[in-house]
Every structure is written in structure tokens, then in C-alpha cells.
Amino acid sequence: MKKLTIAAIAASMMATAIPASADLAIPLLSYRTGPYAPNGIPYADGVEDYISMINARDGGVGGEMLKILPCETAYNTTKGVECYEATKGEGALVYFPLSTGITYQLIPKATADNIPIHSMGYGRTSAANGKVFSHVFNFPGTYWDAASIIVKHMMDVENGSLEGKKIALVYHNSAYGKEPIRTLQELSAKHGFELVLLPVDHPGQEQKSTWLQVRKEKPDFVTMWGWGVMNQVAISEAASIRYPMDRFIGVWWSASENDVLPAGDKSHGYKAIAMNRPGTDFGVYRDIQKHVLDAGNAAGAGDQVGSVLYSRGVLNAAYLVESIRTAQKIHGVADITPGMMRDGMENLKINQARWTEMGFENFTSEINVSCENHGGPGLGAIQQWDANSGTWSLITDFVGSDRAVVDALIEEDSSAYAAENNIADQCS
């Protein structure tokens, strides 16, 4: 999609207008069943409760009510594609696949159908290059950002150097888990550490051999790209071999209460990267309580509010709502189309003042999306689990990734994709 012009905007409005009476449809490709349900449920609850709050408090966005279109994927790629095909004709504005495998399959389909995808902090990392991937957005950060920030933290722990150290990656043996490998390999060459790769097959309930290997290798740090039950098992197995939890650092999808609670006190000190601050001391949660929970309209049991994954769902929904607002402003209509939604996402800007107005004071980083950059600021902070209080706390500020490494990899991978698929620069 090229940068917007007045003529293009007018043509888009004329060509893609939909009836004013239609609700703005939001497919929710969720998984409340299967081995990944413990993580899929709180995320979906967060998305739905925020949307319900916006409808109840504000009457929707720009006078248009938001309508969730739920579709169960069970974290299965085939079912995810089926959900896409089943819902795209219902006016679907944007897709949240909540699965890297599903995202990969939907990229060419959604692009051809002129429907944006928001794979928030997951999916194909090189989709951050909007010059190639016109309809895919992975802000506020990518897997390669996360890998780099985790390595930065390891360097801080080791007084600035990882030379001669050993880092193990315990990863879900899927497209998702393999995403950080190339970045970690590049960082290994740059900083002089040895990288040990330890795949874990779906769903991740059997990891005895993996952690025997960790015990044998004696890595200075372990980082994890896990999801669902894999996270719980990994942390419990790490505890069983007495691996130091403060040297075990997960990606932001290995960072929930569900992951650490099964190990009890032994999970104390576990770390993970975070997209936002933990807790419930934010205006948005007071509004959700008032307009949704107290009204008896919670998406689930109402017991997930403020948990890491619930908050992740709320954040995803907040990006959605602000993108809708932006699209409405750009195009001068309330009943926006998927193509208009894409434009709203590509022009999304939220500074701290606006976050505060939305009830997210000091919750997360500012964001400034552009045609060229669909990946956002690429910031992250390290959070640590306190098993005694049962809470997460940030132990670092939000910091950026190694842009020299990450941007070069994004350019290399996206350029190869563009060449394979005959994609011209979408921003020129």
C-alpha cells in the first residue's frame, strides 16, 4: 500500500463504503480449548472485556458499535485458516491470529483480500518492513527485538560482556519457537557466546531429556520461547535440576502467572521480557470493573483481570480501538472498511499523554507506526516473578533492541520475500 494521498483516500471511500448500520466486526481467533487454553483464555477475556467496555462506556467508536466474531482455533493452523475463511465475509476489519503458524498462512490471503493482520509481538518478524508487507503489523515489537533485549539484559548481569559464556534456547519446535534463532546466532557471533539449541515438541509436556541436556551443558543463561503447558513444564523441570531462576529468561509469551504458579516457591526469581507494566493500578481497569464486570458482562469468570495475558489482550484491543479512531479520522467516515482499517493502523500514533487519557498511564511505550515501519518502537522491559507475593515486577526500564543487528535481518528476510513474490516497494 502506497502512502496515502487525498485522491487515494477519496477513491477508497467511494469504492469500499459499507452500510452505515453495520457494526464494526472484529474476528477473535481464540483458543479456549486444548493444551494452550490456559494461556488463550485470559488473552481472549482481555480483548473481549475491553471491547465491551468501549461499547458500554462510549457507545462504540465514532458512534459505531464493535462486534466480536469469536472463532475457536485450538491453536491449530488449519482451524485458524478455516476461521479466517468463515469470518472474512462478515466485514472483518482486522485479524489477531494469536499464533505464528496461523499468521504465516494468513499473510498472502489477507493481503490479497485487503484485510490487515495485527500479530502483536509474534508472527513473521520481517513483516515489520511495511515496504514489503503492506497488510501485516507486529507492533509494538518483534521476536527479534525481544531476543536482542534479553541478550542485553544478560550482558548487564555479566557486567557488559558475554564473551565465552554459554546461552541455551529452549524453544517450541514450531515456526513460533524458531523465530529468534537467526537473531541469537548473529548476536552470538557479535558478542562471543556459545548458543545451544534445545527444541521441545508440541505441546511440550515431555521435557525430561531437554533439562538433562541443560544440566549437562551448564549454560550461563537459558532463554525460552514457549507457550501454553510447555512453559509450566519447563519452569518446573528447571526447578527440579536446581537451575537458577534468575538466569532463566522467557520471551513475553512465556511470562504469565500460569507459567510460574505450578512450580510454587521454586519459580521465585524467574524472569521474562514484558511489553507493559504489570498490575491493575490503571484507570482502564477501573473502567472495565465499572462498565463490564460489575454489570455482569465479563467474557469469562472475571478472575483474570490484571494478569499478564489478560493485560496483553486489553493492550491489543486498545491498539485496535485507536486504529479504528485513526481510520475514521483519515477517511471521514465512521463505518470504515478493512482497507480503511489498514490505513488507520499504518498511521497509528499514541504518545504518553494519549495513553493516559485512555487509562493506560505509564502502562507501555509510545507508538508511532509508519508505512516503512510496521513493527513499532521495539522496546521491552524485564520483569521478575516474586513467588512470595505472587506478583510480577519490572526490574529494568523499557529499552530498545540492537537495531544494527535486527534491522539488517529484517531487510535481508523481507527483501528475499519480496523477490520471491514479485512485490515492489509499497511505500514509494
Which fold name fills CATH's third level, the topology of the largest domain? Rossmann fold
Largest sheet: 8 strands, mixed
> What is the number of beta strands?
14
Tell me the strand percentage band.
5-15%
How many helical elements?
Answer: 15
The CATH architecture assignment of the largest domain turns out to be 3-Layer(aba) Sandwich
* Principal-axis shape: globular
CATH homology superfamily name of the largest domain: Response regulator
Overall tally of structural domains: 2
Rg on CA atoms, Å: 21 Å
Structural class of the secondary structure composition? Answer: alpha/beta
Question: Element order, helices and strands?
Answer: HEHEHHEEHEHHEHEHEHEHHHEHEEEEH
List low-confidence stretches: 1-21
Q: Report the oligomer.
A: single chain
> Helical percent range?
40-55%
Distance between the termini: 9 Å
Q: Average pLDDT across residues?
A: 94
The CATH class assignment of the largest domain is Alpha Beta
Characteristic terms for this protein:
43% helix, alpha/beta, two-stranded parallel ribbon, Rossmann fold, 2 domains, globular, 428 residues
